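Design review, sub-item: ligand-bound model
Attendees: FS, YL, KQ
YL presented the inputs for the glutamine complex:
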Amino acid sequence: MTRPRVGVLAMQGAFREHIAALARLGADAVPLRDAAELDRLDGVVLPGGESTTMDKLLRKFGLQQPLAERIRGGLPVMATCAGVILLADEVRDGPPDQESLHLLQLKVRRNAYGRQPESFEADVDLSVLDAPFRGIFIRAPVIEEVGEGLDVLAEIEGAPVVVGDTQRLALTFHPELTGDDRIHRYFLEEMVVRATSQAGVAHVATEGGQDAETREAAG
Ligand code: GLN
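KQ shared the predicted structure:
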């Protein structure tokens, strides 16, 4: 048994903060830049940043298709902000050559909080958390349409800001910038560990960041 290994796409954007959050929770968190790494992962995070740049780099580094295949094959994924744009089925207000992975039945519009300042904070009530989460929205996309089979886990002013299913979690804000690790914990425990323990690979990391086996070995 090993600690869950989670790759954070590290082409561009806020990947370091995701790695730090996952590491605080006891995961083996690694930067993902190489398709060869994909086979070793129990979960993957697509961070916020600039979706057009990440899209180009994914293609340049030969990661676009291998990553899409792994996620299609069931790898748990958490996407934040630009990461949601990468996963979406349709991207509105992107440059004509922008590609997406078509792995989430969402139609998203880039930078669409037009009347809001470019960045804002709001309390987000997630159905899977016991108390509101302070969401930091930075040039966030608006989810304009949600396909069948996806749950809306939170909304702000009538627009979904968190959607997902048991394998995929998409957030239009930046949970990695708050120091509040509850969403990462949810992803790790309820999605990654659940999937890997079903496959008999990994098990839950505890509060102290050590898994049960490590604790036992340490006495
Ligand atoms: N506006 C960015 C984009 O379209 C996303 C911003 C973010 O990830 N914070 O890619």
